[in-house]
Specification:
This protein is of the alpha+beta class. The protein is built from five helices and six strands. Helices cover 35% and strands 25% of the residues. It has a six-stranded mixed beta sheet with strand order 1-6-5-2-3-4. It is globular and about 50 Å long.
Length: 140
């Protein structure tokens, strides 16, 4: 599980929202947890702090049945993605380790009604990225 030699992949949709600097920091913190054998599950949810404080960006690593781990690291990249309920997952798959929108966030976006003024038929056709962007526009 989570072999360090597996390729790392950020899904194209998530890469549209998550800056490379933030993704790099997530991978660094994930590697730290691997080093300390703190990763116990093949799926890790990462909740991202709402803001950078004192040059530090915080993350909460959540695993089913395990104690959550709070980590932070130096961050000076773009911040437009912060404070918009972005939650990501790291999945261990046969062909690589994937960073993607969290399953929990996807489930929420798939079941939420279309925002006011959005035609239902158009809402149903949107990808997760499109729904997330519409959700952010309507709520933040």
């Amino acid at each position: 599980m989570f072999e360090k030699t597996k390729k790392r992949v950020i899904t194209d949709e998530l890469a549209t929202i998550l800056p490379n600097e933030a993704a790099t920091l997530i991978w660094e913190k994930f590697d730290t947890m691997l080093t300390y054998q703190a990763i116990k599950q093949p799926l890790v949810e990462i909740q991202i702090a709402d803001a950078v404080e004192d040059g530090q960006l915080g993350f909460l690593f959540v695993q089913d049945g395990e104690e959550s781990q709070e980590l932070e690291g130096a961050y000076a990249g773009p911040t437009e993605f912060l404070g918009k309920a972005l939650i990501v997952d790291i999945h261990d798959r046969v062909d690589g380790i994937y960073l993607d929108f969290a399953d929990r966030l996807k489930a929420y976006l798939m079941t939420m009604p279309a925002p006011v003024g959005y035609p239902d038929a158009e809402w149903r056709r949107l990808t997760i990225l499109g729904k997330y962007q519409a959700f952010v526009k309507a709520n933040f």
